[in-house]
Structures are given as structure tokens and as C-alpha cells.
Amino acid sequence: MLILTAQQHRALDQATLQRDGISSLELMERAATAWATHFVERYPDKSREIVVLCGPGNNGGDGLAIARLLRFEAYTISVIVADIAPASPDNQINRKRAKDVGVHIRTLRENDPLPSFRKRSIVIDALFGTGLSRPIEGYWATLIEHLNEQPVVRVAVDLPSGLRTDEPSDGAVVQAHTTLSLGYPKLALFSPASTTFLGDWDLVSFRLADPLQLEEVDESTPRMLTTGPVAQLLKKRHANDHKGTFGHALLVAGGFGKMGAAVISARAVLRAGAGLVTVHIPRVGYEILQISLPEAMCSVDEHRYIITAVGDPGAYKTIGVGPGLGTRSATQNAFFELLDNFSRPMVIDADALNMLAQSPERLGDLPAGSLLTPHPKEFERLFGATENDFARWELQRNKARELNCVVILKTGYTSIATPDGRQYFNTTGNPGMGTGGTGDALTGILTGLLAQGYAPANAARLGVYLHGLAGDLAARDLEQESLLAEDLVSHLGKAFKKLHRAAEDH
């Protein structure tokens, strides 16, 4: 699904008006109806008082239409209209319509006493829309800060007021508990810096023109990963396939005190569908790995505690390197020798990334199509600091092009940048995955997919989505607080099953 800028959303609205032969007021009604339907499903308790805060623009017009529609659903609802500027024509019409059905509307003027709200009431934020271009200041900023302190449930229409769509936000921003975003997703929804303001967010779809027809949309427009298209990436298996068909992967992982990283990652390689995995480990890990994962083969380093030499990697379809390795000089030499002797795409994670950060001149030696999987701190060590999430995403895309590699930036909504300039954001996964070993599991999944012959960009999209989906299924069964990396790996089969079903239905 496309992730559109505020300008692209405006162009899409105009394209919809032309295609359907409707007015902007009718399009507003279409959006408000979809939003109100979604709200009713989420908040069915009609005993709670609802207050809608409306601004003078089209976001406020949405809010006024929503108030009228919720009045029809028998909610106790009132509206506060902020007298910030002259109201738009559609806003004025919806204000009259709301009054006509008995919605109580009061006007809030600058320097009026701040409104009070009953405890446990719901406040719907429709003050400022996605066209905001400067920080909210003065009395209206004070109003937002006041609202954030109230013991109410705050629900934002489209985006919380004060949150900018395509760039970092400053000044006052509504801290919503729920954001119901209209139409197509916005980039701000995926920003870690937005988490405090968005709360739990969801998309409210309604009938719009095809954004792919817009001149403003091209292949570089970011996309959100969704089940249907991801499921179509799955390779079909055939009756005469065998372990050789599904590839032999080499995993270079583990060290003294960190053999668990190698075990988790190796198990994930096989659970992701690879035919064979050999794990190169220090001698101290031999018994651990053979007992923990009898399906894996072992290649044992001469050194007891660290990895110092891997040997000829030519027999392997792909290599995953990094989990639990450490960054000793001998291990660095072994890693860089591996880069010199292997030309197919690899998965580079954890300490392998840290070693590259220490020797950035070796970044140019990465095999084309390799998958780099940094978390934000590793990304910063590799490529430098950025001022905000938007700048970091741009740097991520630039580095993917420059290195001819796939850069997977692991956050709550992991982003994937490919060498052709495309960018994807993942929506599977949950906070329960914030525990040791889940990154090692991702390394294994990606390595297993590359071993089966998935193209690097497809392996990244499918692997990241599967990783999060398995985490969601594990959290459903075990609760987020109790989730372990091993639980995620053990739920990969259920994640594959869900995607296979989606592929059949698509």
C-alpha cells in the first residue's frame, strides 16, 4: 500500500472528485462516514460523553460531520469549535448540519477560559489537519497542552493536531490514545518520534481514486507492507523438491557466552525453509549447538572462544554473519576475508555491522544485493547521525543505492530500502519482541530465504513481515511480556500458514 505525502493526498482528493463527479462536501461525507463507522466499532459504549474539538478547516469539517453521524448512533455528543480563522465553506455547511440534528456547539475564542472535560469522556481531535506548516503556538498550543493533561480518551481524526505529515514536528502536539488515519498511510505514522502522539493507530479506508494514476506517484513512493502482496512473494514447492533444492546456508555466529545467538539464528534458518545449514562456531560451542539443534551441521573454528577463520565458503548459497561474534581483531580478519571470497548476497547483522563501522572502507566490498540489518544505534555507527527520522530514512535510501545493498532499519515499523530506490515499511510485530535474540532470529529468517533463491529485495520484504507476524502470533498465545525469541521462531510455521492462506485468497 502506498504511503502518500500531504500533497499527494490533496491530489488524490482532486482526482477522486473528477473521477466520481462529486463535490468536496460529498467526499468529506464519504470520509466522515467511514471514520464514524470505525469509531463505533472501537468505542461501542454509548454511556460515555463525547466532545469533538473542531478547527476551521477541512479537518474540522470532518469532525463536525462525524459529530452529526455519531449523534445518529445515539451517542451523547457535543462540539467545541475553535475560532482560529474563518471557516472553510464545507466546514460551515457541516456546522449547520450538525446544529440541525441537535448537536450542541459552542465556540471557543482565543483567551477564553480553557474548557473542562469529564473524567472518562472521549475527546475527538479535529482541530488541525495535515496541511499544517508551522508549529502551533500561543493560546491554541496551551489548549493542546491542557487537553493532554486531562483524564480523557483522546482520539485523533487523520493525525493528531500539530503532527506534521512529512517532516519532523515541533511545538504542541495532541497526544492521542488512538489515531484513525483517513485514506492512505502517511509517513509520520511510522516515525519513532511520533509514537507518543499517535497512540494505537489504524487506517480508515474509503472510496478514492487510484493513486497510481497520479503524476506525483512513482516507484520511489514509499509503500507499507500488507498481507496480500507479501503472500504473493512465497515460492511454491513441488513434489520432487529436496533439501538441495532449498539451499545450503552458512551461518557464522556465536562466541564464548553468546552461543545462544548462534542457536536461535540457526534454528530460524531452517524454520524459514532452508534445506541445510552449517554453523561456523568456536570450539566452545560445539556441544551446545549439536545438542540444541541436531538438524544443524557444525564447522568448528581452531580457536576455542572466538572465530578466527571460516575457510572456503564456495559451497554455500548464502551466508549470514554477525550474531554473537564479538569484534576481536582476529574475528575482524576472518570476516573481511569472507567478504573477499564470497560474491553472492549475504546477511550482515550485529557484530558484523559493528566491524564494518570500525572499518568503513570495507563497506564497498559487500557483495551486491547483501542485506544489512542495523538497529538505530548500529545504523548511526555505520552511516552517521541524523537530525530526525525523516533524514535517517533518506540516508537509508541513499546508502542502499550507493552500496547496491538492501538496508533494513529495525525499529517498531522496520523500514527496508532497496538499491533501486524503493522503500517499504512493515506493520507486523509488537513490543514483546523487544527482547534478546529476536534480531538473531531475523538474521536466520533472511539467511534461510536467500538460501532458497529469493531475490534479496523479496527476501527482505517477506522475511521482515514473517518475523513480525510470527512475533504477533507468539504474543497472542503467550502475551507480550512472556515472549522469547525462541517462541517467535517456533511460531514461524503458523506465520507461513497464514501467508499461504492469504495467497490462496488473493
From TrEMBL:
GO terms for biological process: metabolite repair; nicotinamide nucleotide metabolic process. Keywords: ATP-binding, Isomerase, Lyase, Metal-binding, Multifunctional enzyme, NAD, NADP, Nucleotide-binding, Potassium. It catalyses: (6S)-NADHX + ADP = AMP + phosphate + NADH + H(+); (6R)-NADPHX = (6S)-NADPHX; (6S)-NADPHX + ADP = AMP + phosphate + NADPH + H(+); (6R)-NADHX = (6S)-NADHX. AMP binds at residues 410-414, 439. It comes from the Bacteria. One of its GO terms (molecular function) is ADP-dependent NAD(P)H-hydrate dehydratase activity. Residues 226-499 form the YjeF C-terminal domain. The keyword Repressor does not apply. Pfam families: Carb_kinase, YjeF_N. SUPFAM superfamilies: Ribokinase-like, YjeF N-terminal domain-like. Binds 1 potassium ion per subunit. (6S)-NADPHX binds at residues 58-62, 129-135, 158, 261, 324, 375, 440. K(+) binds at residues 59, 125, 161. NCBIfam families: yjeF_cterm, yjeF_nterm. Belongs to the NnrD/CARKD family. Belongs to the NnrE/AIBP family. This is Bifunctional NAD(P)H-hydrate repair enzyme. It comes from Neolewinella litorea.
